[in-house]
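Schema walkthrough. Field components (list of strings):
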Amino acid sequence: MKKQNKGTSGYRHLFVAPFIIFMLVMVVFPLSLLFYHAFTYEGSFTFDHFRAILTDGPSLAILWRSLWVAVLAAVIIMLIAYPIAYGLAMTGFKRGRTILLLFTLPMWTNLLLRSIALNNLFSLIGLENGFLALMIALVMNFLPIMILPLYVVLSNIDKKYIEASQDLGATPGRVFTKTVLPLSVPGIIAGFVLVFTPIVSTFFLSARFGGNSWRMFGQLLSDHYTTRHFGLGSVLSIILLIVVALTVLVLNRFSKVGNKRGGLW
Amino acid sequence: MARGNGIEKIIEIKNLVKQYGKETAVDDVNLNIRKGEFVTFLGPSGCGKTTILRMIAGFDTPTSGTIMLEGEDVTTAPPHKRNVNTVFQKYALFPHLDVFNNVAFGLKLKMVPPTEAELAKNPKAKPRKHTKEEIKTKVSDALELVGLTDYGHRDVDSLSGGQQQRIAIARAIVMSPKVLLLDEPLGALDLKMRKEMQHELRRMHRELGITFIYVTHDQEEAMTMSDRIVVINDGVIQQIGTPKQIYDEPSNAFVADFIGESNILGGTMIEDFKVKFLDTTFKCDDKGFGKNQAVDIVIRPEDIILVGPKAKTAQLTGVVTSSTFMGIHYEKIVEVKGYEFTIQAVTESKIGEEVGLEIAPDAIHIMAMEATTNEYKTEMWSENSVEIAGKEFAVSEGLGFEKGELVIARIPFDKVEITEDEGDATVGGWVTNSIYKGTYYTVTVWADNDTRFIVMTPIEHDIDDRVGIKINPADIALEKREEATEE
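Field assembly_structure (string):
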C-alpha cells in the first residue's frame, strides 16, 4: 500500500508541471520584466523613473482621477445592480434565471462592437464625449459583472435567517438592513473588486468616451509603452498593481468584519 | 379575553386548512391551547404538524380558518406583529453576529411600552427602545437560563450543536413571548444531548411559565415532556389528550400504533361489553357500538398476563417464538392462531414453550373503524371507466354513466389490490403506513398525484415501499353527484 502511495504522489508532481510552466511564462516572467524596466536605465540601477512619475503633477492628477472615477462608477453600478439582483433572487420571481441571462447577454458581444454601437447612439442623441458619456459606458459594460456575484450570494441566503429575523420582530425593512444586507456583504465585496479593478486600469473605454479632458491612468500607461518609455510605463504598472492589491486587501478585511459583526453598515 | 372554566385559552385554532396546490397539508384543524401549557404536536414526518406551527408563527398563511392569539385574530398578521417566537429546527442563528448580538437581535428591535408610573407622570409617554444596560441585563439573564453565561462574545460557528440550540432558545425566550414555538428543536442532537435538553426544556417551561408548543415525530419525547399531546396524521388531528390518555385510550389504530408498543387486531363487537377476535369472545368495558360492528382492538404488551396453558383463566393459548431480556422485563413474541402478540413479562420463558394468555376486560381498548371504504369525488373517464388518482380505472359495463359525468367512486378497503410490480397496476404509489391487525394489514398508499388508498390485505408491505394499485372493475361502486359547491 505504502509503495503505491509513493508512486501516485510522484505522479502528482507531474500533473502540477503545466500549471507551473504557465505561471512562469505568463506571470513570473512579465513581472520580472516589469521590475527590470522600472528600476534600470540603460542597464544600470536607478530610481529615476519613480522620481519622474511621483513628482509629475499631471500624472498624479490622472492617477487620482482614475481612482475616484473607478470608485464612483463601482458605487453607481452597485446601486443599480443590487436591486436587480435582489429582485431576481429574493422575490420568488418565476423567470429570474431567464431575466438574469438577458442582463448578462451583452457580455457575449465583443467590447469593440458594443462600444462602436454606443458611440453611434451617443452621437445620435447628441451626447458629446466626456464625463457623462464615460460613466454611462462604464456602467453599461460592467453592470452584468456586478449582478452575477450579488445574485449568487443573495439566492444562497437561507430563508430560515429571514424567517428568524421576522420572528424576532423585524419589519420587512429591518429584515433587509439587519439580515439580508449583512449576509450579502461577501457578494458586494466580490462584485466591487470585479468591477473596480478593470475600471481603474481601463484605457479603451476612456479613450473612446472620455475625450481629452477625461484621460485615465490606463491611457497614460499605454502612451508610455507606445512611445517606448518602458521605464515610466513599468513604474505606472507597478503603482497600479499596488493600488489594486491594497483595494482587495482592505475590502477583504471588511468582508471578514462584515461577516462577524454586522460590520460595514 | 376568552375564558372557559377559569382556564385561559391563549391560542384558539378554528377550521384551519392549508393547501399547497391540490395537496391538503392541514385539513380542518380545531384546537385550543391553554395558557402555560406544554403542548406537543406529534406525528410522522410530512403529517402537517410543522405547517400548523408555521401558521401560528405567521410564516405561512392559512387557506381558510382562523388563528386567535389571546382573543385577537392573527390569521393574516405578519410574523413581526405576533407575540410568539420560534426555536428553529436547525437553529438559524445569524452567522454574521456573535452570541450576544444574536440574543440581543430581537430586543434591539422591540419597543418598550411606557409603564403605568411613567404614564401617570407624563400621559403622552411613547414607547421607547431598550437601553444598552437593559439589553445587557436581559441577554445575560437569558444566557444564564440556558447555562451559557460567559459565551456572549463567541462566534456562533465555534459552538457545538447543543450550545447553538441553547442560544437559539435564549434568543427566543429573551423576547418574553406569549407562546414559544419549538420546531423539532432536538432533532439534530445525539441521544445523550437530547435527553439532557428534554430535562432542560421542562425546567425552563416551569421557570418561565410561558406556553410551549413543541413539534416532534419522537413519541417518547412527546410522552415525557408534554402536558397534552396532539397526534396528527395526514393533516388531520387524530387525538388530543394527556400522554396517559393517549397511551391508555388511543382513539384509533393509527394512534395506538404510533404511540408505544401495541397489539392491534381487527375484531367484531358482538354486543355491549362483548367483543370477538381471534375466534374467541372476550368481555370488555366498552359499549355503544352497533351489533356486529367491525372494530379495531388495542392491547398493550404489559396488559397481557401469561399463565399456564391449561390454567382456567387462560383465554387464548399460544407458543413463545422469542423472548428478549430488556433490563426490567422480558419482551416476548407469542404466536396465537397466526397472530404475533408482543407481551412484556417479568418471568423468562423458553422458546417453543406453550403458554396461556389472560386479558382482563379493562386491558382491551376498542376503537371504531372510521371508514371501511375509499371514497373519491371524481368524474367518468369514459362510459366504462372512472378517473381516480389521475388514471383510468375500468368499471363494470352498462352502468349508464356518460363521459365527464360527476360521480363518487367507492372501493372497500379489502377490495383494493396491491401489486409488487407497478407495471401490472393502474397507478403507482408509496406505502406510508402499515398496521398489522392480526389477520390482515391496514396499508396506506399515497399514489403519485396525492390520492390516498387504504388497503386491507393479508400481505405485509413495508413503509416506503414502491407498489402498484389495481382494482377489479366490479368492486368500484359509483354514485352520481351534484356539481361541487365547496371550493
